[in-house]
Amino acid sequence: MPRVTIRLLAVLTIIGLMVVAIAHAQVVSSGGIIVPTLKQQLSTGLLARTPDEQAFVEKVVARVDSGDLPLSLVQSTFLWARRHRPYPMQYFERALRVRAGELGISI
């Protein structure tokens, strides 16, 4: 009997940790739709692979979170850069730096 209890407790703990990890990584809208975070959207959508590219994504997310960089600017640049395959991240970074610079924002 104690073995079953321990196994059940272990399984429930693992499930609980998984739920917490998923909830922390994504946002659920009021309609129950899971929406990726800005960091997930940029990293995945732009195929950011190198540590430098990931660092740039993190810097952009931090600037958006602090209010220094308009989200609309980031999202419109993201949508434009996604069409430039096979390496959209390079286009995104360059275009965002230029567009932000026009607004007096350095990245």
CA-based shape:
elongated
Write down how many β-strands occur, each being a DSSP E stretch of 2 or more residues.
Answer: 2
**What structural class do you assign from the helix and strand content?**
mainly alpha
Helix-strand sequence: HEEHHHH
Q: What is the tally of helical segments? A: 5
Domain tally: 2
Largest sheet: 2 strands, antiparallel
- Distance linking N and C termini: 60 Å
Read across the widest sheet, the strand sequence of neighbours is 1-2
Q: What's the short story on this structure?
A:
It is built from 5 helices and 2 strands, in the order αββαααα. The chain has 107 residues and is mainly alpha-helical.
Architecture overview:
This protein has 107 residues and is mainly alpha-helical. The chain has two domains: 1-36; 37-107. Helix content is 70%, strand content 6%. The chain is built from five helices and two strands. The protein has a two-stranded antiparallel sheet. Strand 1 (26-28) and strand 2 form a beta hairpin. Helix 2 packs antiparallel against helix 3 (51-66) and helix 4 packs antiparallel against helix 5 (88-102). The longest helix has 24 residues, at 2-25. The N and C termini lie far apart (60 Å). 14% of the residues are buried.
